[in-house]
């Protein structure tokens, strides 16, 4: 590849990694998985690609010293790391078992998040439950905010993911 082609390539995979990261947050909210597993995937893939492709990155951009290591490290983590992590999450989510099971969990803690831009006053209630020994935060629509203190339980429809991490299908407040 020429220098110009490599610059286009690096920019493209960076934007792809950032786009997939935003999509991954939505999938993460519906998956019971420990964050440390995802961070581990991002770091391992980022470090491996750093070792494999660092010389090409150095030939492409005119950075020297610590700046070269910093920018290339960020490139590999944000692009290859997030792409690999997204592939892992999407495979677990979309190749999950077809039949869900229904389970009820007691609400451990309540809080809320601000709404989106221009709708900050529409707060979204969040409920934390103890899901098989792990604390999982569930985010609901702002319609539930006014009565959030009246709910005691969350009923979940759960499917087993491809890699064994549970997927939340439907969630209802009781």
Give the number of helices.
3
Specify Rg, calculated over alpha carbons: 20 Å
Into which percentage range does the β-strand content fall?
Answer: 15-25%
Query: Total domains, how many?
Result: 2
- Classify the secondary structure makeup into a structural class: alpha+beta
Q: What overall form do the CA principal axes indicate?
A: elongated
Provide the helix percentage: 40-55%
Round the mean pLDDT to the nearest integer and report it: 91
How far apart the termini lie comes to 59 Å
Major β-sheet annotation: 5 strands, antiparallel
Q: Find the count of extended strands (DSSP E, 2+ residues).
A: 5
Multimeric organization: single chain
Runs in which pLDDT lies below 50 for 5 or more consecutive residues are none
Biggest sheet: strand arrangement: 3-2-1-4-5
* N-to-C series of helices and strands: HHHEEEEE
Transmembrane segments: 7-26, 32-55, 76-95
Keywords: Membrane, Transmembrane, Transmembrane helix
What do these coordinates show?
There is one protein chain. With 174 residues, the protein is α+β, with helices and mostly antiparallel strands. The protein has two domains: 3-94, no CATH class; 101-173, OB fold (Dihydrolipoamide Acetyltransferase, E2P). The chain has helices at 3-29, 35-60, 65-94, and strands at residues 101-113, 124-131, 134-139, 153-160, 166-173. Strands 3-2-1-4-5 form a five-stranded antiparallel sheet, with no helix packed on it. Strand 4 and strand 5 (166-173) form a beta hairpin. Helix 2 packs across helix 3. The chain crosses the membrane at residues 7-26, 32-55, 76-95. Keywords: Membrane, Transmembrane, Transmembrane helix.
